[in-house]
Specification:
The protein has 128 residues and is mainly beta. It is built from one helix and nine strands, in the order H-E-E-E-E-E-E-E-E-E. It has one helix spanning 2-13, and strands at residues 23-25, 28-33, 37-45, 52-60, 69-71, 74-77, 85-90, 96-107, 117-127. The strands form two sheets. It has a five-stranded mixed beta sheet with strand order 2-9-8-4-6, with helices on one face. Strands 1-3-7-5 form a four-stranded antiparallel beta sheet, covered by helices on one side. It is elongated and about 45 Å long. This is Late embryogenesis abundant protein LEA-2 subgroup domain-containing protein.
Amino acid sequence: MYRLISVALIAACFGSTPALSQSMSPMRGEIRSYTDSFAVRVQPRNPYKHRINVGIRAYDADFRPIEARISPADFSLGAGASRSVLVVVNFNGARERRVRICTESVPLSGKGVGMKAQICGKFIGHRL
């Protein structure tokens, strides 16, 4: 379990500098795990000057929703803020699993045109 957490923390350290537009870091990565699941830590960022609602979702390589433990899955993110989110995905018996982790944001009501944005990263889990 500690190795899984260590791998997730190392993956989160690479490419975690915020951009000037809506972002999620890291945007891609390869994770090696000795267990039947692997963890990815992502950090969505809100570049806007107002609070937004954020949802983190996990998909397979073809953007079909998959089951994953996401903590927290839905939350509110203040202006200019970012937050760390842990996503744990099962291998489901496979030796390798390709997933997309997406940050989906919806501006709060009353803040103009309610556009929904989706930023996705690609991740590959390898079971050792």
